């Protein structure tokens, strides 16, 4: 049996870090207005892990965009690192991992808000939230 893969990452200043063990549940893009505004970009790319497979170290703060989610950021540099969307999952920003090119999104949420120039031909597309 092989060793569990551990992937690391964190914020821009290095104060807030994480270790993610194993493989993610899913990888996606989100075009909702909250993701657009917090990132300053036309979409957000994220990796979903079971919460018990991720260890977070360092100080962070969070705020709630909806009653079921908390957007978490570094208290020093303000980097958006992860979201806690439920008691069972954690959504880690794809750009927060230490290595590039680890994951490929398989779906996009809130596609009705996607910029017209953005082409996402191989992704399963949801007009709003995944599962809506």
Quick synopsis:
The chain contains one helix and eleven strands.
Q: How many beta-strand segments?
A: 11
Query: How much β-strand is present in the residues?
Result: 35-45%
- Largest sheet: number of strands, sense, barrel closure: 8 strands, mixed
The CATH homologous superfamily name equals glutathione-dependent formaldehyde- activating enzyme (gfa)
Helical run tally: 1
Q: Share of helix among residues?
A: under 10%
Instruction: Strand order, main sheet: write it out.
Output: 6-7-8-9-4-3-10-11
Kindly name the structural category: mainly beta
What is the overall silhouette? globular
And the CATH topology? glutathione-dependent formaldehyde- activating enzyme (gfa)
Distance between the termini: 38 Å
Keywords: Lyase, Metal-binding, Zinc
Family: Belongs to the Gfa family.
Domain CENP-V/GFA: 7-108
Protein name: GFA family protein
Commentary on this structure:
This is GFA family protein. The chain has 132 residues and is mostly beta strands. It has one domain: Alpha-Beta Complex (glutathione-dependent formaldehyde- activating enzyme (gfa)), CATH 3.90.1590.10. Helices cover 5% and strands 38% of the residues. The protein has one helix and eleven strands. It has an eight-stranded mixed β-sheet with strand order 6-7-8-9-4-3-10-11. Strands 1-2-5 form a three-stranded antiparallel β-sheet, with no helix packed on it. β8 (80-84) and β9 form a beta hairpin. The protein is globular and about 40 Å long. 25% of the residues are buried. The model has no long low-confidence stretch (mean pLDDT 91).
């Amino acid at each position: 049996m092989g060793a569990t893969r551990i992937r690391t990452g964190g914020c821009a200043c290095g104060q807030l870090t994480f270790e993610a063990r194993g493989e993610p549940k899913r990888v996606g893009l989100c075009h909702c207005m909250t993701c657009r505004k917090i990132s300053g970009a036309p979409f957000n790319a994220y990796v979903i892990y079971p919460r018990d497979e991720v260890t977070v170290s360092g100080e962070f703060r969070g705020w709630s965009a909806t009653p079921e989610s908390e957007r978490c950021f570094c208290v020093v540099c303000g980097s958006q690192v992860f979201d806690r969307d439920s008691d069972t999952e954690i959504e880690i920003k794809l750009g927060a991992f230490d290595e590039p090119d680890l994951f490929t999104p398989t779906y996009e949420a809130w596609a009705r808000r996607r910029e017209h120039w953005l082409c996402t031909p191989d992704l399963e597309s949801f007009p709003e939230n995944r599962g809506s």
